[in-house]
User: Which sequence fits this backbone?
């Protein structure tokens, strides 16, 4: 029997055009489910979670138009959808015990809870790079091994029996943690930042002390932690490639990108994508003065690398 | 038997130093209750609601320090407290059916869902004033008679059986709807705005078309609507006087106001209080250019009136 109301959480929902994507998908699925089960309506309570500083005002202001769109689409079969914002780190408890039916997290769990300790000697790099000392990889991996189980423990308390989670990681197919799949993009940004330091825009010490708090795991590394922690069973693991150039999808018909954006050069697009991800971190470390200048260099370097890889 | 988790909503929580006041009070009460019932711990899920544009980022950013303070105070007896933001009008559904144990709303229900229709001839006034045409009072009261039952109907669906609400209205003791208790303050602001119009800072048509969407009911008007709507029973009605000059409390020891603020003139303080309430409405109607100039005139007028009333 279905409950009267479904409680759904999106952890690391971000603040932008994708924020409501999960809600749309879930309500569409719930609608289909209600129809198949011949049930009249089902209320959904959707909790959108992200860090307290991540721009909830923007999300909440666009809620009205999203709800209008949703109610036009959902003529019948799904009850009202109640949205709320949950500020806080998903590496801690966010919800009462046994209160969630479905948890979703997309491209957020590669963010570690903090920059791992012991990365002081990762000079000139901003992530695990091929030139990083061996302790850097160890520090990142160990932080991941602490963080993911913590996430699972918290969710195990919050999810009802029979509830489930869909987690999407930005990760790598390869078992090599220095694989270009995940490291190249940050090596290129490190090159741009080192360039800015050499021209005096920022200080070299600032670049040396900057590290991206990320670990992009392989599928087997994720599975190991899930098995070790023991609260959840893995039903399905899927690996799919994501193009760093968001506009370079062959299937762009009906997308929200303008033709001019799609046709512009790949390096520029990838740099925009990186900027969306890294800008808050860069601003809090370097101040907001350097952003324009640093990112001016990135597209050129990226374009060179991007074209090489495409060929 | 107590539930494992209490769901508590503060409707119209605003964004400022008072926002967390209710949460503190409720967790303190829950702690006492747990101790009295010899129960170990109780989780609280607190929903802070206000309109989507009301500054949730500020609330969420100050959450960390509030939770630290709370956990220092609550050494034992109360479980974790999970806070969330619920954007939307409380004149519509905000929560799933039967999901709330306790609802609180302080000084918010005097706000109507909209400026009542039929107030076009309320020229030179911005609220029900002694010089307002008779249809103005009727329009405001009828809007209140539509809005409060709507609020009650929504909450009746959301509150569990046995749950309860504590609602605080900014209202009047008198049965006279034009009583100075509620109207004087807006008449003084209207005087200031008319003054700004006469010196050309704003247009007279803009003042004429501006109305505050408020109705400050008497206790009996509130009770009538509760009885008519029929979902809730009134357990207790209390009336207490609130000083418009927030600093003019005889008991200011330990308050967060500095001595210089307390000792400054009453009119200035009341103007600040009015400004906090009315500024968003004024800005959206007149633009943000006029605020400083308009409020410069208010303290003088208020001081005159304030001193007259004190004597």
Assistant:
């Amino acid at each position: 029997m279905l409950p009267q109301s479904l409680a759904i959480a999106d952890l690391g929902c971000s603040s932008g055009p994708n924020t409501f994507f999960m809600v749309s998908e879930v309500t569409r699925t719930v609608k289909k489910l209600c129809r198949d089960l011949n049930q009249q309506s089902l209320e959904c309570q959707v909790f959108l979670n992200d860090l307290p500083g991540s721009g909830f005002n923007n999300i909440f202001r666009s809620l009205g138009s999203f709800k209008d769109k949703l109610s036009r689409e959902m003529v019948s079969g799904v009850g009202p959808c109640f949205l709320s914002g949950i500020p806080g780190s998903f590496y801690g408890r966010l919800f009462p015990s046994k209160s969630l039916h479905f948890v979703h997290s997309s491209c957020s769990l590669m963010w570690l809870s903090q920059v791992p300790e012991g990365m002081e000697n990762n000079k000139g790099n901003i992530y695990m790079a091929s030139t990083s000392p061996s302790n850097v990889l160890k520090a990142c991996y160990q932080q991941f091994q602490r963080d993911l189980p913590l996430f699972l423990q918290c969710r195990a308390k919050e999810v009802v029996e029979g509830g489930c989670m869909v987690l999407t990681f930005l990760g790598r197919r390869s078992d090599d943690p220095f694989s270009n799949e995940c490291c190249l993009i940050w090596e290129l940004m490190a090159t741009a930042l080192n360039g800015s330091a050499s021209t005096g825009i920022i200080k070299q010490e600032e670049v040396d002390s900057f590290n991206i708090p990320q670990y992009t795991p392989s599928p087997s590394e994720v599975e190991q932690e899930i098995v070790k922690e023991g609260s959840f069973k893995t039903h399905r693991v899927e690996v799919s490639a994501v193009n760093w150039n968001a506009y370079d999808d062959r299937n762009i018909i009906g997308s929200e990108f303008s033709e001019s954006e799609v046709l512009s050069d790949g390096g520029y697009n990838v740099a925009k994508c990186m900027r969306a991800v890294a800008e808050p971190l860069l601003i809090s470390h370097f101040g907001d003065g350097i952003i324009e200048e640093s990112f001016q260099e990135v597209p050129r370097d990226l374009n060179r690398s991007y074209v090489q890889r495409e060929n």
